[in-house]
Design a protein that fits this description.
By secondary structure, the chain is mainly α. Helices cover about 75% and strands about 0% of the residues.
Length: about 300
């Protein structure tokens, strides 16, 4: 396997762990979980083997998106402390290998979904991969501070794909879950962007804190948190979910807005190591895991 050199040093040999790292496994775990919840919350039943194959296809599609993202952004990743040790900027893999791996994984994931589920789910999976790679990575991210807002649609597809894999059709609840993740993404990601702002500035990426400034970013975090809370609670009064999900969404969303207010109302420059921002970022991940778990629990244990 060919290797590229970084900083004039010999590259370390690549192994399976470097290919696995290309798939962004931590991001993939959230993708897989929300997709699984979408599938389990759908009406009817799916054969366990086909359900497993469908979720595997979504996981592989997410991994392919991550690999192609890292292939395209190898030079940018090398400029940021947070990403400098990834396989490509660290010189453990060459870009051609990453490209071939990503394209191959993407094609396999779509064909697996087609045979395991249905063509509708395969089309949605294809759209989500192409959206993340071409719309978000190549077009939006290097050009506009709204990159994570519009690009958030890519991460919102999994529960919708899981539902369609199980049913072959779209319904209001998975659309509501899509909207929830879409609105969750900006406050989640901008909380991170606030305490790694210098990284994005060094790489020339126009993230909101770099372009619009810290104060505007904080206001946007609070605004999107409120909109997200409304979207999260809405399925309950609309009759798409029961009280178990409804109360869980209400309590967790109130906490999310409270943490976002602590971030949003802070004075610019009040860093103290960005503790409120880090708390919001950590809670936002737990929030989505618990809330989607409640979707499934509400379906199987309605109150």
């Amino acid at each position: 396997m060919a290797q590229s050199l970084t900083h004039g040093e010999m590259s370390l040999p690549a192994d399976w762990r470097d290919l696995f790292a290309l798939t962004k496994p931590r991001v993939m775990s959230l993708v897989v979980f929300t997709a699984l919840c979408g599938l389990l919350a759908a009406p009817g039943s799916v054969h366990p083997v086909l359900a497993f194959s469908s979720i595997l296809a979504i996981a592989l599609g997410a991994g392919a998106s991550g690999a192609l993202n890292q292939w395209y952004e190898a030079t940018i990743d090398a400029k940021m402390k947070r990403t400098a040790n990834r396989p490509l900027p660290a010189g453990r893999l060459d870009r051609q290998t990453a490209l071939q791996f990503g394209v191959g994984l993407a094609a396999f994931s779509v064909f697996l979904m087609l045979f395991a589920a249905n063509w509708q789910a395969a089309v949605l999976l294809t759209v989500s991969i192409l959206f993340y790679v071409f719309i978000y990575t190549m077009w939006l991210k290097p050009r506009t501070p709204q990159n994570i807002v519009i690009g958030g649609a890519a991460g919102a597809f999994p529960p919708l794909i899981g539902w369609v894999a199980a049913t072959g059709s779209v319904a209001p609840l998975p659309i509501a879950l899509f909207l929830l993740i879409f609105l969750w993404t900006p406050p989640h990601f901008w909380a991170l962007a606030l305490f790694v702002r210098s990284d994005y500035a060094a790489a020339g990426i126009p993230m909101m804190p770099v372009v619009a400034g810290e104060r505007a970013t904080r206001r946007q975090i609070l605004l999107y948190a409120v909109l997200m809370a409304v979207a999260a609670i809405a399925p309950w009064p609309l009759g798409y979910t029961g009280a178990l999900y409804g109360w869980t969404a209400t309590i967790l969303s109130a906490l999310f807005v409270l943490l976002s207010a602590q971030v949003g109302l802070r004075s610019a420059g009040a860093y103290d190591r960005m503790q409120p921002e880090k708390r919001l970022f950590a809670f936002s991940i737990a929030y989505l895991f618990i809330l989607f778990g409640a979707v499934v629990a509400d379906h199987w244990l309605p109150l």
